[in-house]
Amino acid sequence: MADLLDDAAITAALADLPGWERDGDSIVRTAELPDFPTAIRVVGEVGADAERADHHPDIDIRWRTLTFRLSTHSEGGLTAKDTALAAEISSRLSAAGG
Q1: Distance (Å, rounded) from C-alpha 80 to C-alpha 68?
Q2: CB-based contacts of 16: which residues, under 8 Å, 6+ apart?
Q3: pTM for this one?
């Protein structure tokens, strides 16, 4: 069980997560990758990260544009699990040119 983040904690976390925005009880980031194969590779890497963390994002794939949405559904909002995985996703995107 993870504790929900309050508004101040979410705002502080987003300050350290460029490209991520709050959307209600979720945080969202969209990134454009160089090409479709790179985008799919990143999805696979994020999938492995998510499995290790036992925390899974919603992922929308549109050719080379990926949108990641994070929320801790079991807790009804945002937790440190979301911000931690967002940081990992950002790292993957950056390494892939997104």
Answers
A1: 16
A2: 87
A3: 0.95
